[in-house]
Amino acid sequence: MVIHSLFPDLATAGLAIGWAPLEDLQGTLDPDEWDGHCQRSTLPPTRIHRRSALVKVLADTLELSAQPLRRASDRSPLWPADRRGSLSHCTALCAAAVGRHDAVQSIGIDIEKIGRIEPKLWPTLFSENERAYFDSLNPERLAAETTVFFSAKEAFYKCQYPLTQSWVGFQDVEVTRIDDCTLGIAPPNLPPQPCHGPSIHTARLDDTHVATIMLMPI
Ligand SMILES: CC(C)(COP(=O)(O)OP(=O)(O)OC[C@H]1O[C@@H](n2cnc3c(N)ncnc32)[C@H](O)[C@@H]1OP(=O)(O)O)[C@@H](O)C(=O)NCCC(=O)NCCS
Q1: How many A from CA of 163 to the centre of ligand 1?
Q2: Which numeric CATH code is attached to 113-216?
Q3: Residue of minimum CA distance from atom 9 in ligand 1
Q4: N- to C-terminal Cα distance for the chain?
Q5: Backbone phi, then psi, for 55, in 5-degree steps?
Q6: Residue pLDDT, tens place only, 158-186
Q7: Which of 47, 75, 76 to probe ligand 1 with, by most ligand atoms within 8 A of CB?
Q8: Does the model's pTM come out above 0.85?
């Protein structure tokens, strides 16, 4: 199995991040993983099986034992105590990040196909400031940037959830571009909390997919 490196500048001795086409991911599903929550999942069994294969390869590179990745009743992942992690999959690709518990406090990763965030969705997903920024972009950049901003909110949500157990709506936080590879996120009308501290990193996987990641340090 070929796993592509992702955010290599962020990977440390205790953190592994990678992606692969779903069809390239092979492995056997741990029967414990196929528990009640997975059985009720709307995902096809092969998708669960393949995303678990990527998580296992990344855990293996950190010399973490193979363990089933269970899900809570709210669908959030229940990572074994010795690790933190996050995963994301779309129709064709899967990305995941796994970190040792003493290397990272929480992780949120997300991948998205460019072009799915249509203008009719913007009032739901984006603040006035975010939409004003989009208005300043040329059409070529616009599709990628709206996808990146949406993905950043999903990565933030996944990172903060294990720490706060809180729902965050799309209008509750605002994304700003810092530079070509990083974004900031903060509530528009409230003081920022510790979970808004880290930057969100962004990368292109290929011509049509973007990835974002947020890491909460120890
Ligand atoms: C939870 C959510 C972010 C998942 O994103 P998605 O685009 O549907 O799917 P992805 O493939 O990117 O990610 C799926 C993975 O997210 C993880 N996940 C699900 N709920 C999670 C939670 N509460 N916290 C952390 N991770 C979660 C799971 O590992 C899941 O994988 P699995 O279904 O194979 O077990 C999304 O469904 C959701 O509920 N979004 C609304 C909240 C939100 O994003 N707010 C943004 C403003 S901050």
Answers
A1: 15
A2: 3.90.470
A3: 88
A4: 31
A5: -60, -40
A6: 999 999 999 999 999 999 999 999 999 99
A7: 75
A8: yes
Ranges of CATH 3.90.470 domains, the chain: 4-104, 113-216
**Pocket residue to mutate for ligand 1, from 158, 160, 216, most atoms within 8 A of Cβ:** 158
CB of 46 within 6 A of ligand 1: the answer is: no
List, for residues 48-75, the tens digit of each pLDDT value: 889 999 999 999 999 999 998 888 888 8
The predicted structure's pLDDT at residue 30: 74
Which tokens in the block code for residue 180?
Answer: 């070509």
> Do 178 and 78 meet the contact criterion of CB atoms below 8 Å apart?
no
Closest listed residue to residue 176, CA positions, set 194, 157, 152, 195? 152
Task: Extract the residue ranges of the chain whose pLDDT is less than 50.
Answer: none
From the CB of 173, is ligand 1 less than 6 Å away? yes
Indicate whether residue 71 lines ligand 1 (CB < 6 A).
yes
With the most atoms of ligand 1 within 8 angstroms of its CB, the residue from 78, 87, 150, 160 to mutate is: 87
Tokens for 131, please give them. Answer: 């939409």
Q: What is the pLDDT of residue 95?
A: 98
Compute the distance between CA of residue 31 and CA of residue 122 in angstroms, rounded to an integer. Answer: 41
Q: Which of the four CATH numbers 2.40.128, 3.90.470, 3.30.70, 3.90.550 does domain 4-104 have?
A: 3.90.470
> Closest ligand 1 atom to the C-alpha of 169?
47
